[in-house]
Amino acid sequence: MAGSRSERLLALLQALRSRRYPVTGDALARELDVSLRTLYRDIASLRAQGAAIEGEAGVGYLLRPGFLLPPMMFSQDEIEALVLGSRWVEKVSDPKLSTAASQALAKIAAVLPQSLSETIDETALIVGPRAVTEDTADIAALRSAIRAEKVLEIDYRDERDQVTTRVIWPIGLAYFERVRIVVAWCEMRQDFRHFRTDRIAALNETGRRYPRRRTVLLSEWRRQLPGA
User: Which residues pair with 174 in a beta bridge?
Assistant: First the structure.
C-alpha cells in the first residue's frame, strides 16, 4: 500500500481491531497490499510499541483491546483536524474545557515528529472570533452531571423573565454559534426539554442519579427530532 510507514502501521492496527477472531498473516498482507515479510516486521513494530497482538505466523493474529497508538501515528490531515477542533473548543467552551483543549494539543505536539509538529503552528486553518452569550450556569458542573448521570435542580428564566424551578436529567450539551443548550428530561413536563445555559439562574445537585441510562435517553431524544 502507498503511504508512510506510520500510515501502514495505523492501517494494520485498524485491520486487527476490526476482527473478533484470529486472522492469518496471508489475509492481512493481501488486505493491506504488502509483502508477508513486511507484515511480520510491522507486527513486530506494533508489539514493540505495546500492542498486545496474540498469535504467530501460520496460526493467525488477534489484537487484545485497550491499545491506543501514540499521536505520532496521526496523518497531517488528522493533525490539522485536531488543531482546528482544539482551537474551536478553546474559544467557545467553559474555562475548564478550554484549558483542557490547550493542554491536550500541547501533549500531542510534544510527541509528534518535527515534520508534523510544525503543522500545529503553521496550519492555515483559523477559528474566527465568536460572540458567545455569557453563561449564568456552571458549565463544568453541567458536564460533570451529564457524565455521572446526576439529577439536577435548576432555576430557569424564560423569555418573559419568569423563573421556574425544574428538576432535570441532563443528557447532553449542545454548542451553537451564540448559545449553549442543555438537553434534558424534565420531571415537571415529563418530556424532553431544552434549556439555554444563559437562562439558568441557579443549579444544584440533588444527590440522585436518574433511573435510566443516558445513552438510552439520548436515543429516545434523537428519535423525536424533526426528520429523524
Answer: 181
Which triple of cell numbers denotes residue 111?
A: 510527541
Instruction: Estimate to the nearest angstrom the gap between the alpha carbon of 97 and the chain centroid.
Output: 13
Q: Which residues pair with 55 in a beta bridge?
A: 61
Per-residue pLDDT of the chain (228 residues; tens, 9 = 90+): 545 677 788 788 888 888 888 999 999 999 999 999 999 999 998 888 788 899 877 789 998 876 655 545 677 788 888 889 999 998 888 889 999 998 888 877 776 767 677 778 777 888 888 777 888 999 999 999 999 999 999 999 999 999 999 999 999 999 988 899 999 999 999 999 999 999 999 999 999 999 999 999 999 999 998 876
Residue 203 phi/psi, 5-degree rounding, is: -145, 125
pTM of the model: 0.66
Structure letter (DSSP) for residue 128: P
Residue type, 120: I
Sign of CA dihedral 34, 36, 38, 42: positive
**10-17, Cβ contacts within 8 angstroms, sequence gap of 24 or more:** 10/69, 10/73, 10/75, 12/39, 12/42, 12/43, 12/46, 13/46, 13/51, 13/63, 13/67, 13/69, 16/53, 16/61, 16/62, 16/63, 17/63
